[in-house]
Amino acid sequence: MRVESKGSEVQEPAPGAVMRALQLIPGILLCGAVTVVSLGVQAAEERAFDHPYIEALVVAILLGMAVRTAWQPSERWRSGIAFSAKQLLEVAVMLLGASISFAAIVASGYLLIGAIAVTVVIMLAVSFGLSRMLGLKPKLSILIACGNSICGNSAIAAVAPVIEADGDDIASSISFTAILGVLMVLGLPLLIPLLQLSATQYGILAGLTVYAVPQVLAATVPAGFVSTQIGTLVKLVRVLMLGPIVLGLSLLVARRRKLGAGGAKTVSISPFKLVPWFIIGFLALAALRSLQLVPDVAIAPVTRIAAVLTVVSMAALGLGVDVRVLSTVGGRVTAAVTLSLMLLLGLSIGLVHFFR
């Protein structure tokens, strides 16, 4: 139906588009239900231990996998699950840009920033090469390298849609990375007396090796305020490395597509096609935040929305995972993640001795 008004026409939404939107609802609601339970588990951990040892996004993917193991979703559910796993995750990644301030990063000192950047680049190459040597697929190797080198689950979630990784690869890398992340939180404080680390050194070590920002807090709070402050700052610099890494991967993927379609021809490609829209949004929000055009009062709710959407996406990924596939790569993924983390820890221990 069209409504005409003095030479102009207002086109009503196509029935097909409305039907497609309605078809998403069951799957989205299912992912939302898994998310509510996962957030409840994290809240219970926070009440019991003051901080979560296993974050809600990890609970969501494991719970989603458990549901999928017991029940095979029909076509009625799949479109909404797929939408939650991809589009909602892209929105979450974009919103994270609002929490990044370039000015705060620069204020930490160029020597420390350079050391963090070099560590991230080295470990990206080492982790990827190690994963490939163990026979893992390129996309899974990229996810493990980014998760280990940058910020664990968040990096995996951000990189996955750029390289078009499938749900099985994402679940594999997140599951084993999450387990080692918890072990790092529990075991890292033991290195303070063993290596006679100062508060500054331990903060840098925690920021370089622990995966998630909440886990950095959990690992450094027992060591005091100085370690917590420095650890959080170092961790934020690592997180900031995610932008250039994802940008580079998106350009690489676009180049491979062009070559696959016949690279001999000169094709004009828009930057918006080379770089995913949500990465452009991420960088734009980070720039606005750095220019103080995003008010401080908006940061907390925007960050919270991004966190919840990420949990919803992880629930969707879990619901789309076939556990039988995980069993075929479990040993190799565990070896790749463990060895990469041990190498990162060794490199970081050597580095902190320059920051007394």
Pick out the low-confidence regions: 1-8, 264-270
Strand order of the largest sheet: 1-2
What proportion strand? Answer: under 5%
Helices and strands, in order, run as EEHHHHHHHHHHHHHHHH
Number of individual domains = 1
Query: Mean pLDDT, as a whole number?
Result: 79
Distance between the termini: 72 Å
Radius of gyration: 21 Å
Structural class category: mainly alpha
Q: Which shape, going by the Cα principal axes?
A: globular
Helicity, as a percent range: over 70%
Provide a count of the helices: 16
Largest sheet, if any?
2 strands, antiparallel
Total beta strands: 2
Membrane topology: Multi-pass membrane protein
Transmembrane segments: 21-41, 53-71, 83-104, 110-130, 142-163, 175-195, 202-224, 236-254, 274-292, 298-321, 333-355
Family: Belongs to the UPF0324 family.
Subcellular location: Cell membrane
Describe the structure.
It is a multi-pass membrane protein. By secondary structure, this protein is mainly α. It has one domain (about 25-350). About 80% of the residues lie in helices and about 0% in strands. The chain contains 16 helices and two strands. Strand 1 and strand 2 form a beta hairpin. Mean pLDDT is about 80; it is low at about 1-10 and about 265-270.
What are the SSEs and their pairings?
Blueprint: E1 2-5, E2 8-11, H1 15-49, H2 56-70, H3 75-96, H4 102-106, H5 110-133, H6 138-163, H7 167-187, H8 191-195, H9 199-209, H10 213-220, H11 225-240, H12 242-260, H13 271-274, H14 277-290, H15 296-319, H16 323-352
Antiparallel strand pairs: 1-2
